Amino acid sequence: MAEILAMPRADQQALLRVEQADGVLRLILNRPPANALSIDLIAELQAELDRSAADSSVRVVVIAAQGKVFSGGHDLKEMTAHRNDADKGEAFFEQTFEACGKMMQTIVAHPRPVIAEVNGIATAAGCQLVATCDLAIASDKATFGVNGIDVGLFCTTPGVALARGMKPKHAMEMLFTGEMIDAGTAREFGLVNRVVPAEYLTQVVNKYAQVIVAKSPAAIAIGKRAFYQQAELGLADAYAHASRVMVDNMLGRDAQEGIAAFIEKRKPQWSEE
Protein backbone atom coordinates (compact mmCIF):
# COMPACT_ATOMS: atom_id res chain seq x y z
CA MET A 1 0.00 0.00 0.00
CA ALA A 2 1.44 3.35 -1.01
CA GLU A 3 1.93 6.07 1.54
CA ILE A 4 -1.00 8.43 1.89
CA LEU A 5 -0.08 11.57 0.02
CA ALA A 6 -2.71 13.86 1.47
CA MET A 7 -3.95 12.99 4.93
CA PRO A 8 -7.33 14.15 6.22
CA ARG A 9 -7.17 17.78 7.18
CA ALA A 10 -6.09 18.45 10.74
CA ASP A 11 -9.34 20.22 11.53
CA GLN A 12 -11.75 17.34 12.16
CA GLN A 13 -14.63 19.77 11.66
CA ALA A 14 -13.55 20.29 8.05
CA LEU A 15 -16.53 20.04 5.73
CA LEU A 16 -14.61 17.77 3.37
CA ARG A 17 -11.96 15.23 4.34
CA VAL A 18 -9.42 14.59 1.60
CA GLU A 19 -7.32 11.43 1.29
CA GLN A 20 -5.10 10.31 -1.57
CA ALA A 21 -3.23 7.02 -2.00
CA ASP A 22 -2.41 4.58 -4.79
CA GLY A 23 -3.84 6.85 -7.48
CA VAL A 24 -7.20 7.18 -5.72
CA LEU A 25 -8.49 10.49 -4.36
CA ARG A 26 -11.17 10.11 -1.69
CA LEU A 27 -13.43 13.09 -1.01
CA ILE A 28 -15.39 12.40 2.18
CA LEU A 29 -18.40 14.56 3.00
CA ASN A 30 -17.96 15.49 6.65
CA ARG A 31 -21.09 17.31 7.83
CA PRO A 32 -22.88 14.59 9.81
CA PRO A 33 -25.53 13.75 10.55
CA ALA A 34 -27.05 14.89 7.23
CA ASN A 35 -23.94 15.80 5.21
CA ALA A 36 -26.07 18.53 3.66
CA LEU A 37 -24.66 20.21 0.57
CA SER A 38 -24.22 23.69 1.95
CA ILE A 39 -22.82 26.41 -0.29
CA ASP A 40 -19.45 26.00 1.45
CA LEU A 41 -19.34 22.21 1.04
CA ILE A 42 -20.23 22.57 -2.63
CA ALA A 43 -17.37 25.06 -2.98
CA GLU A 44 -14.92 22.65 -1.35
CA LEU A 45 -16.01 19.81 -3.62
CA GLN A 46 -15.64 22.11 -6.61
CA ALA A 47 -12.12 23.12 -5.58
CA GLU A 48 -10.96 19.53 -5.10
CA LEU A 49 -12.50 18.41 -8.38
CA ASP A 50 -10.79 21.27 -10.21
CA ARG A 51 -7.46 20.56 -8.53
CA SER A 52 -7.54 16.82 -9.16
CA ALA A 53 -8.46 17.25 -12.83
CA ALA A 54 -4.99 18.75 -13.34
CA ASP A 55 -3.19 16.24 -11.11
CA SER A 56 -1.82 13.31 -13.13
CA SER A 57 -1.24 11.31 -9.94
CA VAL A 58 -5.01 11.09 -9.45
CA ARG A 59 -6.44 8.27 -11.53
CA VAL A 60 -9.81 7.74 -9.83
CA VAL A 61 -11.96 9.98 -7.60
CA VAL A 62 -14.21 8.46 -4.93
CA ILE A 63 -16.91 10.52 -3.23
CA ALA A 64 -17.92 9.03 0.12
CA ALA A 65 -19.42 10.33 3.36
CA GLN A 66 -18.94 10.22 7.11
CA GLY A 67 -21.79 8.74 9.11
CA LYS A 68 -25.07 7.03 8.30
CA VAL A 69 -26.24 9.54 5.69
CA PHE A 70 -24.46 9.94 2.37
CA SER A 71 -26.14 13.30 1.83
CA GLY A 72 -29.54 14.70 2.64
CA GLY A 73 -29.32 17.20 -0.22
CA HIS A 74 -29.21 20.98 0.03
CA ASP A 75 -29.02 22.61 3.46
CA LEU A 76 -32.65 23.70 3.86
CA LYS A 77 -31.92 25.52 7.12
CA GLU A 78 -29.22 27.58 5.39
CA MET A 79 -31.55 28.34 2.50
CA THR A 80 -34.50 29.19 4.77
CA ALA A 81 -32.36 31.67 6.71
CA HIS A 82 -31.92 33.65 3.50
CA ARG A 83 -35.68 34.18 3.18
CA ASN A 84 -35.03 37.13 5.49
CA ASP A 85 -32.87 38.77 2.79
CA ALA A 86 -34.25 41.82 1.02
CA ASP A 87 -34.95 39.73 -2.09
CA LYS A 88 -36.51 36.92 0.01
CA GLY A 89 -33.54 34.70 -0.75
CA GLU A 90 -33.71 34.76 -4.54
CA ALA A 91 -30.04 35.65 -5.08
CA PHE A 92 -28.83 33.02 -2.61
CA PHE A 93 -31.08 30.36 -4.13
CA GLU A 94 -29.71 31.19 -7.58
CA GLN A 95 -26.16 31.07 -6.25
CA THR A 96 -26.75 27.69 -4.58
CA PHE A 97 -28.35 25.96 -7.55
CA GLU A 98 -25.85 27.45 -9.99
CA ALA A 99 -22.89 26.33 -7.86
CA CYS A 100 -24.36 22.86 -7.41
CA GLY A 101 -25.07 22.53 -11.13
CA LYS A 102 -21.52 23.60 -11.96
CA MET A 103 -20.10 21.06 -9.52
CA MET A 104 -22.22 18.26 -11.02
CA GLN A 105 -21.10 19.22 -14.52
CA THR A 106 -17.49 19.22 -13.34
CA ILE A 107 -17.91 15.58 -12.28
CA VAL A 108 -19.15 14.69 -15.76
CA ALA A 109 -16.34 16.66 -17.43
CA HIS A 110 -13.65 15.39 -15.04
CA PRO A 111 -11.01 13.39 -16.95
CA ARG A 112 -10.97 10.68 -14.25
CA PRO A 113 -13.75 8.25 -13.37
CA VAL A 114 -15.73 9.44 -10.33
CA ILE A 115 -17.24 6.75 -8.10
CA ALA A 116 -19.93 7.33 -5.47
CA GLU A 117 -19.49 5.14 -2.38
CA VAL A 118 -22.92 5.14 -0.74
CA ASN A 119 -23.38 3.70 2.73
CA GLY A 120 -26.60 5.30 3.91
CA ILE A 121 -29.33 7.69 2.85
CA ALA A 122 -28.98 9.77 -0.32
CA THR A 123 -31.84 12.17 -0.93
CA ALA A 124 -32.61 15.15 -3.19
CA ALA A 125 -29.29 16.76 -4.26
CA GLY A 126 -27.52 13.91 -2.47
CA CYS A 127 -29.27 11.46 -4.78
CA GLN A 128 -28.41 13.81 -7.66
CA LEU A 129 -24.74 13.51 -6.68
CA VAL A 130 -24.96 9.71 -6.80
CA ALA A 131 -26.70 9.80 -10.19
CA THR A 132 -24.10 12.21 -11.58
CA CYS A 133 -21.06 10.09 -10.69
CA ASP A 134 -19.81 7.77 -13.42
CA LEU A 135 -20.18 4.74 -11.18
CA ALA A 136 -22.03 4.18 -7.91
CA ILE A 137 -21.54 1.33 -5.47
CA ALA A 138 -23.94 1.11 -2.56
CA SER A 139 -24.20 -0.88 0.63
CA ASP A 140 -27.25 -3.01 1.23
CA LYS A 141 -28.27 -0.47 3.86
CA ALA A 142 -28.36 2.48 1.46
CA THR A 143 -31.63 4.14 0.48
CA PHE A 144 -32.37 6.76 -2.16
CA GLY A 145 -35.00 9.37 -2.87
CA VAL A 146 -35.74 12.74 -4.43
CA ASN A 147 -38.26 13.84 -1.85
CA GLY A 148 -38.41 17.59 -2.39
CA ILE A 149 -42.01 17.10 -3.49
CA ASP A 150 -42.83 16.29 0.15
CA VAL A 151 -42.07 19.91 1.10
CA GLY A 152 -43.60 21.46 -2.01
CA LEU A 153 -40.35 21.62 -3.98
CA PHE A 154 -40.07 19.49 -7.13
CA CYS A 155 -36.49 18.15 -7.45
CA THR A 156 -36.00 19.63 -10.90
CA THR A 157 -32.20 19.84 -10.83
CA PRO A 158 -31.76 16.30 -9.46
CA GLY A 159 -34.10 15.29 -12.27
CA VAL A 160 -31.44 16.34 -14.80
CA ALA A 161 -29.08 13.64 -13.52
CA LEU A 162 -31.84 11.05 -13.04
CA ALA A 163 -33.15 11.56 -16.58
CA ARG A 164 -29.71 10.88 -18.01
CA GLY A 165 -28.99 7.77 -16.00
CA MET A 166 -32.34 6.03 -15.62
CA LYS A 167 -35.40 5.14 -17.64
CA PRO A 168 -37.79 8.13 -17.72
CA LYS A 169 -40.61 6.33 -15.94
CA HIS A 170 -38.32 5.26 -13.10
CA ALA A 171 -37.06 8.82 -12.73
CA MET A 172 -40.56 10.25 -12.81
CA GLU A 173 -41.77 7.71 -10.25
CA MET A 174 -39.11 8.93 -7.83
CA LEU A 175 -39.72 12.60 -8.61
CA PHE A 176 -43.52 12.45 -8.39
CA THR A 177 -43.86 10.31 -5.27
CA GLY A 178 -40.81 11.35 -3.23
CA GLU A 179 -40.76 7.81 -1.87
CA MET A 180 -37.50 6.22 -0.81
CA ILE A 181 -36.21 3.17 -2.66
CA ASP A 182 -33.86 0.54 -1.28
CA ALA A 183 -30.48 -0.31 -2.74
CA GLY A 184 -31.80 -3.28 -4.70
CA THR A 185 -34.43 -1.15 -6.40
CA ALA A 186 -31.84 1.54 -7.05
CA ARG A 187 -29.79 -1.05 -8.92
CA GLU A 188 -32.86 -2.17 -10.91
CA PHE A 189 -33.54 1.47 -11.79
CA GLY A 190 -29.95 1.98 -12.97
CA LEU A 191 -29.05 4.44 -10.22
CA VAL A 192 -26.23 2.27 -8.83
CA ASN A 193 -23.96 -0.37 -10.33
CA ARG A 194 -23.51 -2.75 -7.43
CA VAL A 195 -25.01 -3.46 -4.01
CA VAL A 196 -22.71 -5.06 -1.45
CA PRO A 197 -22.81 -5.80 2.29
CA ALA A 198 -22.05 -2.65 4.25
CA GLU A 199 -18.96 -4.12 5.91
CA TYR A 200 -17.35 -4.73 2.50
CA LEU A 201 -18.36 -1.49 0.78
CA THR A 202 -15.06 0.37 0.96
CA GLN A 203 -13.14 -2.79 0.09
CA VAL A 204 -15.23 -3.32 -3.05
CA VAL A 205 -14.96 0.35 -4.07
CA ASN A 206 -11.18 0.17 -3.65
CA LYS A 207 -11.08 -2.97 -5.78
CA TYR A 208 -13.00 -1.27 -8.59
CA ALA A 209 -10.81 1.82 -8.28
CA GLN A 210 -7.60 -0.20 -8.55
CA VAL A 211 -8.88 -2.05 -11.62
CA ILE A 212 -9.37 1.35 -13.28
CA VAL A 213 -6.05 2.73 -12.00
CA ALA A 214 -4.32 -0.10 -13.90
CA LYS A 215 -5.79 1.06 -17.23
CA SER A 216 -4.45 3.71 -19.59
CA PRO A 217 -5.28 7.12 -18.10
CA ALA A 218 -5.21 8.66 -21.57
CA ALA A 219 -7.73 6.15 -22.93
CA ILE A 220 -9.96 6.58 -19.87
CA ALA A 221 -9.99 10.37 -20.31
CA ILE A 222 -10.68 10.14 -24.05
CA GLY A 223 -13.39 7.54 -23.57
CA LYS A 224 -15.21 9.26 -20.73
CA ARG A 225 -15.37 12.54 -22.60
CA ALA A 226 -16.57 10.86 -25.80
CA PHE A 227 -19.19 8.79 -23.96
CA TYR A 228 -20.98 11.83 -22.61
CA GLN A 229 -20.58 13.77 -25.86
CA GLN A 230 -22.07 11.07 -28.07
CA ALA A 231 -24.95 10.54 -25.65
CA GLU A 232 -26.21 14.03 -26.52
CA LEU A 233 -26.17 13.36 -30.29
CA GLY A 234 -28.45 11.63 -32.75
CA LEU A 235 -27.47 8.09 -33.81
CA ALA A 236 -25.64 8.97 -37.02
CA ASP A 237 -23.80 11.90 -35.47
CA ALA A 238 -22.94 9.77 -32.44
CA TYR A 239 -21.32 7.12 -34.63
CA ALA A 240 -19.47 9.75 -36.65
CA HIS A 241 -18.13 11.36 -33.49
CA ALA A 242 -17.23 8.04 -31.85
CA SER A 243 -15.46 6.86 -35.01
CA ARG A 244 -13.32 10.00 -35.12
CA VAL A 245 -12.43 9.56 -31.45
CA MET A 246 -11.49 5.92 -32.10
CA VAL A 247 -9.15 7.01 -34.89
CA ASP A 248 -7.51 9.62 -32.67
CA ASN A 249 -7.26 7.05 -29.87
CA MET A 250 -5.64 4.51 -32.22
CA LEU A 251 -3.06 7.09 -33.27
CA GLY A 252 -2.16 7.81 -29.67
CA ARG A 253 0.85 6.39 -27.87
CA ASP A 254 -1.07 4.24 -25.38
CA ALA A 255 -3.10 2.34 -27.98
CA GLN A 256 0.09 1.58 -29.89
CA GLU A 257 1.80 0.43 -26.68
CA GLY A 258 -1.21 -1.53 -25.45
CA ILE A 259 -1.71 -3.44 -28.69
CA ALA A 260 2.01 -4.18 -28.95
CA ALA A 261 2.03 -5.44 -25.35
CA PHE A 262 -0.98 -7.67 -26.09
CA ILE A 263 0.73 -9.18 -29.15
CA GLU A 264 4.02 -9.58 -27.29
CA LYS A 265 2.26 -11.01 -24.20
CA ARG A 266 3.69 -8.46 -21.76
CA LYS A 267 2.34 -5.82 -19.41
CA PRO A 268 1.83 -2.42 -21.10
CA GLN A 269 3.62 0.67 -19.86
CA TRP A 270 1.10 3.50 -19.99
CA SER A 271 1.92 7.15 -20.45
CA GLU A 272 1.03 9.64 -17.73
CA GLU A 273 -1.63 10.97 -20.18
Automatic annotation (TrEMBL):
Biological classification of the source: Bacteria, Pseudomonadati, Pseudomonadota, Alphaproteobacteria, Hyphomicrobiales
Q: Which Gene3D superfamilies has this protein been placed in?
A: 2-enoyl-CoA Hydratase, Chain A, domain 1, Lyase 2-enoyl-coa Hydratase, Chain A, domain 2
* Keywords of this entry: Fatty acid metabolism, Lipid metabolism, Lyase, Transit peptide
Q: Which InterPro entries match?
A: ClpP/crotonase-like_dom_sf, Enoyl-CoA_hydra/iso, Enoyl-CoA_hydra_C, Mitochondrial_ECH-domain
Give the highest taxon in the source lineage. Bacteria
Membrane-crossing residues? none
Name the Gene Ontology biological process terms. fatty acid metabolic process
* Family note: Belongs to the enoyl-CoA hydratase/isomerase family.
Q: State the Gene Ontology terms under molecular function.
A: hydro-lyase activity
Purpose: May play a role in fatty acid biosynthesis and insulin sensitivity.
**Signal peptide per UniProt:** none
Under what name is this protein listed? Enoyl-CoA hydratase domain-containing protein 3, mitochondrial
